[in-house]
């Protein structure tokens, strides 16, 4: 089939809108540590690699009329952003529980360098976030994102515009399941913090003359780090296992 050069260019651009929109938001590639030019080159390279496989899903729907092309571009950007955003919400939930764990064991005051964001982050939260992100890449989670992008052309073809209602359902379900998962992962530290603080409070009431808080703080941190040592492997493993089912596997 002979295809006009303008159609090829428009097909590549429309494909880039969905694929690039996803790659520019998904965790890892959207990190503040990755320059914008590198993200753009990765998105362009992924678009070029996938365009051949998606040719039959894109070219038949290309229409050069502005009133058709403009809504299609906006829709493709929203769909790609949704796929990448669901994965990012899952990782942000881990950032939340990482900061909470650091605060619960008294280690929140120790600042560290954030991996994903520009804002400073507790050192313990940075370790958790970086370990989880590294494990996701080791387990080829970015391949799952690419598979989801390819499959999305069957679920949401080009002639079907972005459905905000279905997107909101996906976002709320992902948020709910992600935060329930990370709360389960952080539950040992929540229980530890409750028991330790209750004990310290009772001791402080019994002996108000002694500054129990300052004396107990090193022991609280040490106990929390011991629990962290034994729990971090299971935490990261369960987090990686739930990625596909919670985000793009629905």
UniProtKB/TrEMBL annotation:
Membrane topology, from the record: Multi-pass membrane protein
Subcellular location: Cell membrane; Bacterial flagellum basal body
Keywords assigned by UniProt, alphabetized: Bacterial flagellum, Cell membrane, Cell projection, Cilium, Flagellum, Membrane, Transmembrane, Transmembrane helix
Transmembrane segments: 7-26, 38-56, 68-86, 92-110, 122-139, 179-200, 212-240
Pfam name, any one: Bac_export_1
InterPro entries to which the protein is assigned, alphabetical: FliR, T3SS_IM_R
Organism domain of life: Bacteria
Biological process according to GO: bacterial-type flagellum assembly; protein targeting
GO CC list: bacterial-type flagellum basal body; plasma membrane
Chief location category: membrane
Keyword Membrane set for record: yes
Role noted for this protein: Role in flagellar biosynthesis.
NCBIfam families: fliR
Family under the similarity heading: Belongs to the FliR/MopE/SpaR family.
Name used for this protein in its record: Flagellar biosynthetic protein FliR
Organism: Pseudaminobacter salicylatoxidans
Taxonomy of the source species: Bacteria, Pseudomonadati, Pseudomonadota, Alphaproteobacteria, Hyphomicrobiales
